[in-house]
Amino acid sequence: MVLCIAVAASLGIAPARVRVREFPIPTADCFASQIASGPDGARWFTEQNANQIGRIALDGAVTEFAIPTPQSYPEGITAGPDGALWFTEEGAGKIGRIALDGAVTEFAIPTLNSYPEGISAGPDGALWFVEETGNQIGRITTGGSVTEFVIPTPGALPEAIAPGSDGALWFTEPGTDRIGRITIGGSVTEFPLPAGSQPEGIAAGPDGALWFTEYGANRVGRITTGGSISHFRIPTPDSGAGLIAAGPNSMWFTESSADQIGAIRTG
Known about the structure:
Layout: E1 2-5, E2 32-37, E3 43-47, E4 52-56, E5 62-66, E6 74-79, E7 85-89, E8 94-98, E9 104-108, E10 116-121, E11 127-131, E12 136-140, E13 146-150, E14 161-163, E15 169-173, E16 178-182, E17 188-192, E18 199-204, E19 210-214, E20 219-223, E21 229-233, E22 241-246, E23 250-255, E24 260-265
Antiparallel strand pairs: 1-24, 2-3, 3-4, 4-5, 6-7, 7-8, 8-9, 10-11, 11-12, 12-13, 14-15, 15-16, 16-17, 18-19, 19-20, 20-21, 22-23, 23-24
C-alpha cells in the first residue's frame, strides 16, 4: 500500500497532533539541497546557490561554512567514517570534506566535468559517489585517493547511490532506465527497468532490499539483492518522486511536483 500525505503528516499519527517547525537559513536564496545527520547530533546540508555547507543544531541554530572553490554547487552530502561530512561539488568536479569545526578540504576528481551527484559511505571505509556526465562510479578514501569505475552502459547519467545489505553499493541510472550494483572491487552489474522509468533516489530498506523512486513512471520500485524487481504506483499523477529514505517500517520519498511527502510500507 502507498500512502501519499502532506509534509505535515506522519505514519500512524493523527494530523491534529503533528507539529511542523521551520527554521530560516541566514543566506537568502541559498537553495538548500540535501541533508544528512552528523556525528555531533546536528544536521548538515548543502547550499547550492550560496556555495556553502550549513549546519543546524537541534535547537534550530544555523551555522554556515563557505566552500573555498567558487560556484562549486554542492549537492550530495553524507557522514563519513572519519567523523567528518563528505559532499559532492557538481560545478567544480570535486569531493569536499568538512570537519565538525567547519574546516573544508577539497579533492579533485580525475575525470574533468564529471558532475558528481550522490555520495554515500561504503562498507569498506571509503566514500562512494556517482559521476553523472562522467558515466562512472567514484570511490574516495578518507585520505583523498580517488578511483573511478566506468559504468558499462553509456549515457547512464547516474544520480544516487546507497549501500546495500549485501556489502555492495547500488545506484540509479535515469538515463538508461537501470539500477546498477557495484562491488567494492569495482565490478558493475546492471538491472533493466521498463522504458521511461527514470529511477532517481535509492536507499536501503529495513527489509534488506533497495528501494528507489521512478520519476518518469510515477512509481516506487524495490529490488532485492538478487535482482528481483517490484513496482508500486504512486496515487498522485506526475508526483515528481525524487529522494527516498528509510523509516522503521516504511520508506519515505519526496514528491516535488505535488508538494507532498509519500510513504510506502515495506512489510
